[in-house]
Design a protein that fits this description.
Layout: E1 4-9, H1 14-18, H2 30-42, E2 51-54, H3 58-67, H4 69-72, E3 78-81, H5 99-110, H6 115-122, E4 124-125, H7 144-160, E5 165-170, H8 172-179, E6 183-189, E7 192-197, E8 209-210, E9 231-232, E10 236-238, E11 253-258, E12 269-271, H9 273-278
Parallel strand pairs: 1-5, 2-3, 2-5, 3-4
Antiparallel strand pairs: 1-11, 6-7, 7-10, 8-9, 11-12
GO molecular function, one term: phosphatase activity
InterPro entries: His_Pase_superF_clade-1 (IPR013078), His_PPase_superfam (IPR029033), PGM_Phosphatase (IPR050275)
Pfam family, one: His_Phos_1
Length: about 280
C-alpha cells in the first residue's frame, strides 16, 4: 500500500519579509522559528512518521528540524534531503549550496540550538544532494516542463517508498506542482486580474473572503514582489497588490494520499477528507 504523505511548506524566511529575492538560500526569521514551535506542538503524526524528506535549502531543513524534532528523535526515522523538492524559480533566494558547503551551513544554523535539533542534524542524509543540484539547469531548470517532470519524479519516488507515513517539507510554489492543484489565471493585465479558483476542485461560496490568490503562470521573477490581501469573490482583483507564487501559508501542513490509479511510473496525490475537514479555508 502506498504511503500517506504530509506536505509542509517551510516557515517564514528572510525573503518572505524583505521581498528581496537576492538573499542567498534564505534562512528562517525569528517569526518563522516561532511558527515551527507552534507546528511542533500541533503536528498530529510525530509518533507515526516513518520518514522525513526535505528540500536541501536552508529554510526547509530548519523547518523540518524545528517542527518535526519528535519524529526525528525516533531511532528508525530517516531524514533525507532531496533536490527534487527544491523551489521552482532560479532567483538567488532559491539557489542552494553544494553538498560540502551545505553541511557546514547546517552546522552554523543549529550550532547554538538545543540538543534535539543537533541530534536531528546528525541524522541528515546528504546522499541525494548531487553535484549540480543547485545549477537550475537541466532537470533542475525553472521552466515549467522541467518542474512538472521533477514533481512527477518525486511523486513516483514517494509512491514506491516502503514507509507508511512520510513528511515532506518543501516550498509553496513547488507544492502546487507536486499536488497538481492550482488557482488558475484567466488573464493578467497591469494591476488587474481575474482568476478562477480550482484548487482541489473546490469553489468558494460567492462573497467569501479568500486569504490570497495564487497565479502560478505569471513570470516567476515576480513571485516575491507582492503582499497577500483579502479578496472578495467573484474572483476580480483590481488596483491592489497581488500575491504571486503560492497559496500555501508558511508552515501550512496538509495530508495527502495517492489516487487509486497511481503506480510506480505515474502517481498523483489527492488531499484526504480528514485534511480537508481539518482546515477552515479553501485550497492548499
Amino acid at each position: 500500500m502506498p504511503p500517506l504523505i504530509y506536505l509542509v511548506r517551510h516557515a517564514e524566511a528572510e525573503h518572505n519579509v524583505s521581498r528581496d529575492p537576492n538573499a542567498r538560500d534564505a534562512r528562517l526569521t525569528q517569526r518563522g522559528k516561532a511558527q515551527c514551535a507552534r507546528l511542533l506542538e500541533t503536528f498530529p503524526a510525530h509518533d507515526s512518521i516513518d520518514l522525513v524528506v526535505a528540500s536541501p535549502l536552508r529554510r526547509t531543513i530548519q523547518t523540518a528540524v524545528l517542527s518535526l524534532a519528535p519524529s526525528l528523535a525516533r531511532e528508525n526515522v530517516e531524514f533525507l534531503l532531496l533536490p527534487e523538492a527544491q523551489e521552482v524559480s532560479d532567483m538567488t533566494c532559491n539557489v542552494g549550496f553544494l553538498r560540502e558547503e551545505l553541511e557546514v551551513e547546517v552546522q552554523k544554523l543549529f550550532g547554538d540550538d538545543e540538543s534535539a535539533a543537533l541530534a536531528a542534524c546528525r541524522k541528515i542524509n546528504y546522499t541525494a544532494v548531487v553535484d549540480g543540484w543547485n545549477s537550475k539547469k537541466g532537470i533542475w531548470d525553472s521552466e515549467k516542463s522541467a518542474v512538472r517532470a521533477r514533481a512527477a519524479k518525486l511523486r513516483a519516488w514517494l509512491y514506491a517508498r516502503p514507509e507508511k507515513i512520510i513528511a515532506v517539507v518543501s516550498h509553496g510554489n513547488f507544492l502546487h506542482y507536486l499536488t497538481e492543484a492550482w488557482v488558475e489565471p484567466m488573464y493578467f493585465e497591469g494591476k488587474t486580474a481575474t482568476a478562477k479558483v480550482t484548487a482541489l476542485g473546490l469553489t468558494p461560496p460567492k462573497g467569501m473572503i479568500f486569504p490570497f490568490l495564487s497565479v502560478p503562470s505569471l513570470p516567476l521573477e515576480l513571485e516575491y514582489l507582492y503582499q497577500p490581501i483579502a479578496i472578495k469573490f467573484p474572483y476580480t482583483i483590481s488596483n491592489c497588490c497581488l500575491r504571486i507564487g503560492t497559496s500555501w501559508a508558511n508552515c501550512e501542513t496538509h495530508q495527502f494520499e495517492f489516487s487509486p490509479n497511481s503506480n510506480e511510473h505515474e502517481a498523483h496525490l489527492t488531499e484526504t477528507a480528514e485534511s480537508k475537514n481539518a482546515r477552515k479555508h479553501f485550497g492548499p
